[in-house]
């Protein structure tokens, strides 16, 4: 038995070697790109990956595959894209062209990245999956903030309430409210007056136009006329006619001096007045 097994293994080994020589058995792609040391083979594996990506991108366009199958296809496409990047980097290391810079980006442009999640892309029907569609919805653009100059353009007298009475609505309401308040105050005063009269109290009404003694200034107080009527006096010093005439003469004299006299003459005149104590 051992001899027959050895013969079978020998025959199988020869058959396997013959198939490899004829090219009928497909060679498996290395798991790591760094295991490949030949540039033609690296180019071959890159083209193979691109073909697989193209097939899966075409399959994922069908929205009837179901949510789970679409998610699996999208994961496989992203995995193949990362693998393609590894092979392109290996090709560059072996002296080949830099496909990451000059290669076509059609397959990469088919996918769409979620903002803030760089590297993972969604292809075909995966963009419309539940939970993914919301990620691609753009937030509304906030309204532009106005500058201080733009805000000041809309500020006028109406902003401060100076034109509230021009609309014809506020003024009638204020008049109505004023009449109501006055009527309430008069009614309250009448009730208080009737209550005092009922108690037998009589109070003299205060003369609101009378000038009190403490309000008179040092120049004079409350004066009465010939018939005993009160005279209103000014509480500020009022110059007499003579003082007014003297002030006008001094003003006219100063104008003439400024007009005809020189600065030196005016200085000498002022100095002489100072010496004389005038």
Given the C-alpha coordinates, what overall shape results?
elongated
Report the count of strand segments. Answer: 4
Enumerate the strands of the largest sheet in spatial order, edge to edge or round the barrel: 1-2
Radius of gyration: 54 Å
Q: Which percent range describes the beta-strand content?
A: under 5%
- Helix count, DSSP H or I runs of 4 or more residues: 10
What is the rounded distance between the termini?
A: 154 Å
Helical residue percent band: 40-55%
Could you give a short account of the major beta sheet?
2 strands, antiparallel
Order of helices and strands: HHHHHEEHHHEEHH
Explain what this protein looks like in three dimensions:
Helices cover 54% and strands 5% of the residues. The longest helix has 29 residues, at 170-198. α2 (39-59) packs antiparallel against α3. It has helices spanning 2-22, 39-59, 67-93, 99-102, 106-110, 133-136, 148-153, 170-198, 241-260, 263-276; strands at 112-114, 117-122, 223-224, 230-231. It is built from ten helices and four strands. The chain is mostly helical and 278 residues long. The strands form two sheets. It has a two-stranded antiparallel sheet. The chain has a two-stranded antiparallel sheet with strand order 3-4.
């Amino acid at each position: 038995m051992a001899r027959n097994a050895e013969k079978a293994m020998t025959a199988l080994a020869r058959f396997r070697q013959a198939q490899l020589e004829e090219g009928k058995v497909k060679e498996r792609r290395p798991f790591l790109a760094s295991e490949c040391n030949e540039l033609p083979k690296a180019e071959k594996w890159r083209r193979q990956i691109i073909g697989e990506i193209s097939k899966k991108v075409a399959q994922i366009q069908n929205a009837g595959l179901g949510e789970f199958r679409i998610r699996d296809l999208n994961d496989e496409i992203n995995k193949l894209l990362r693998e393609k990047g590894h092979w392109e980097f290996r090709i560059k290391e072996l002296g080949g062209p830099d496909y990451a810079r000059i290669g076509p980006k059609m397959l990469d442009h088919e996918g769409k990245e979620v903002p803030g999640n760089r590297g993972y892309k969604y292809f075909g029907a995966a963009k419309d999956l539940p939970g993914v569609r919301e990620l691609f919805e753009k937030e509304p653009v906030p309204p532009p903030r106005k500058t201080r100059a733009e805000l000041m353009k809309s500020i006028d007298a109406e902003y401060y309430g100076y034109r509230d009475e021009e609309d014809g609505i506020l003024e009638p309401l204020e008049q109505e409210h004023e009449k109501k308040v006055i009527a309430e105050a008069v009614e309250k005063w009448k009730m208080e007056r009737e209550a005092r009269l009922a108690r037998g109290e009589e109070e003299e009404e205060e003369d609101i136009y009378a000038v009190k003694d403490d309000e008179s200034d040092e120049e004079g107080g409350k004066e009465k006329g010939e018939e005993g009527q009160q005279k209103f006096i000014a509480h500020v010093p009022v110059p007499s006619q003579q003082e007014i005439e003297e002030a006008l003469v001094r003003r006219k004299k100063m104008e003439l001096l400024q007009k005809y006299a020189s600065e030196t003459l005016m200085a000498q005149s002022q100095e002489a007045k100072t010496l004389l104590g005038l």
